[in-house]
Amino acid sequence: MKFKRTLVTFLLMCGAFSSPLIQIMNKRLAAILLMALGVPALALAWTAGGLVNNVYSHNGTHIIDTTILDAPCGTAGRFWWSETYPDAKYMFALATTALVAQKQISVVHDPTTPNCLFGGQLATHMVITR
């Protein structure tokens, strides 16, 4: 909640010395951001970090086994995505880079609506962390 108030304050302060039209636009933008931040259904879950143990590619699907503890589909740390997904090649590159460099990754998935394949959960985003 403190983050939201800080964000609104910042946006309103940015328009403090602007024309009335800019101030109105800033208030509308602040309202839109507050609505977007306040909708928990839009906020998917980033996992805690974990190391990549295995990277697979099978029949148009990329699968990774990690040390991440999340297990909405029964196998802890297993995530998948289709090669037709727009970011598939980038996620595959991140996963293989993390495997070789032994860096941790985090992925985004929806734990409330499991989308399971090969015992793993659908991942929609990925990041390498230190």
Notable traits:
single chain, 130 residues, alpha+beta, OB fold (Dihydrolipoamide Acetyltransferase, E2P), 2 domains, 8-stranded mixed beta sheet, 8 strands, 35% helix, elongated
Walk me through this protein's architecture.
It is a single chain. The chain has two domains: 2-42; 45-129, OB fold (Dihydrolipoamide Acetyltransferase, E2P). Helices cover 35% and strands 29% of the residues. The protein has helices at residues 2-14, 20-37, 88-101, and strands at 45-46, 50-58, 61-66, 78-82, 104-109, 116-117, 120-122, 125-129. Strands 1, 2, 3, 4, 5, 6, 7 and 8 form an eight-stranded mixed sheet that branches. Helix 1 (2-14) packs antiparallel against helix 2. It is elongated, with a radius of gyration of 19 Å.
